[in-house]
Write a structure and sequence with these properties.
The protein is an alpha+beta fold. It is built from 13 helices and 11 strands. It catalyses: [protein]-peptidylproline (omega=180) = [protein]-peptidylproline (omega=0).
């Protein structure tokens, strides 16, 4: 088989392949003979149609079908011969395709880039150091009470933390604006759900009262017509409800798996969950910085085919997350919405692959087992979860992939510039963008 390779641009390759005529022609003949057995034509008994008639009627279609198979097989053989790693599907074009003549075709495709790993000491990481204090546990218990609060109607002026049911109508000048009117809307005062000044203006109002509130939309508001604009909201309070917090009693604790009402056990369970959350938050922040550092250290061309595939995957993921089960045309979401993140994902995937290959890393069985058991502990019947994971190859593969990423992070951290920073539990568990704001 004749093969020649040409670099057209960047990662794109043009592979010209010659396949002996007898290989193609014999495959076509074999396919026609097989088809002949099942062809039914008027005037002929089943399987007795003359080969000449079969070729006249079906020869072209059969040859095209054979051609696709031959080119695909020859392409696989050619890239192995030339030690090429295609990224994405190739495009085929037959340049010589006649019976009795050698087949020649051109395959155009991209290859994976060669990733030359930089020294990992170029990666800088700020590692949070924090502990869960008794005060943090008390704060968390108060948060849990807030989450399980009930609202009861009260006959008094509304205060921050209350829930009000309101009608409102927003006016810009003398005209109502789109999206500025509602009836029977529940609103928790102090939640920050509405624009600045709106909730504060309702504080002190009682059920049945009406009032005009003057507010200004923020400059960064999403509506071009309203950003920075002064408006008036006509408010009517229908109902005021006060927040009733549950007592930390046996019934409350039972909702968190402590059945005997032992407060010490309850606090220990809360602390255990907080420590797990803290550990995961620190691990996540460190990993995020490692990945950012690796991406900055390694700049190389990316296969457009891989980026395109990642864009499509992210688009479908967004449809599944926000489509609400409704029919949704994913094509209305432009590529630009995903391209930058897709490029980052593809780049990191290639870097991690290079690190794994060059360091011959395999998923550590003990770490995989520990991860599986850690996940299982969060369920009522841990043993069943462990057995399910190990009996589910796809699920196990996902966990092995996560463990491999951890091993890559550990390898990078062994050479990276790591600076520890002591902080509170609350700051440590905040997402980085919030902590840095």
């Amino acid at each position: 088989m004749q093969v020649s390779v040409e670099t057209t641009s960047g990662l794109e390759r043009r592979l010209t392949v010659g396949v002996p005529a007898e290989k193609v022609d014999s495959a076509v003949e074999s396919k026609l003979q097989e088809a002949k057995k099942n062809i039914r034509l008027d005037g002929f008994r089943p399987g007795k149609v003359p080969m000449g008639e079969v070729k006249r009627r079906f020869g072209s279609a059969v040859r095209n079908e054979v051609l696709a198979d031959v080119m695909r097989e020859a392409f696989i053989e050619a890239v192995e011969q030339e030690k090429l790693q295609p990224a994405g599907m190739p495009g085929f074009e037959a340049t010589t395709n006649e019976a009795g003549k050698d087949l020649e075709f051109v395959a155009t495709f991209e290859v994976y880039p060669e990733v030359e790993l930089a020294a990992f000491d170029g990666v800088a990481v700020e590692k949070p150091v924090a502990e869960v204090s008794d005060e943090d546990v008390d704060t968390m218990i108060e948060t849990l009470r807030q989450q399980r609060a009930q609202f009861e109607e009260v006959d008094r002026a509304a205060a921050e933390g209350d829930r009000v049911n309101i009608n409102y109508k927003g006016l810009k000048g003398d005209e109502a604006f789109e999206g500025g009117t509602a009836e029977g809307q529940n609103l928790e005062l102090g939640s920050g759900q509405m624009i600045p000044g709106f909730e504060d203006g309702i504080v002190g109002m009682k059920a049945g009262e009406e009032k005009d509130i003057n507010v200004t939309f923020p400059e960064e508001y999403h509506s071009e017509e309203l950003k920075g604009q002064a408006v008036v909201f006509q408010i009517k309070v229908n109902k005021v409800e006060g927040k009733q917090l549950p007592e930390v009693d046996a019934e409350f604790m039972k909702g968190f798996g402590v059945d005997d009402g032992d407060e010490a056990k309850f606090k220990a369970e809360v602390r255990k969950n907080m420590e797990r959350e803290l550990k995961n938050a620190i691990t996540g922040k460190v990993k995020e910085q490692v990945m950012e550092g690796l991406g900055e250290l390694h700049q190389f061309d990316l296969p457009a085919a891989l980026v395109g595939q990642e864009v499509q995957r992210m688009r479908q993921q967004m449809v599944q997350q926000f489509g609400g089960g409704q029919q949704f045309d994913a094509s209305i979401l432009p590529d630009d919405l995903f391209t930058e993140q897709a490029q980052r994902s593809v780049r990191l995937g290639l870097i991690i692959r290079a690190i794994l290959d060059q360091n011959e890393l395999k998923a550590d069985a003990d770490k995989v087992k520990a991860r599986v058991e850690e996940i299982a502990e969060q369920y009522e019947k841990p043993e069943e979860v462990v057995n399910w994971v190990y009996g589910n190859p796809q699920q196990l593969q996902q966990i092995e992939g996560a463990v491999l990423e951890e091993q890559v992070v550990d390898l990078v951290l062994s050479s990276a510039k790591v600076e520890e920073k002591t902080m509170s539990y609350q700051d440590a568990v905040k997402p980085r963008e919030q902590a840095e704001a």
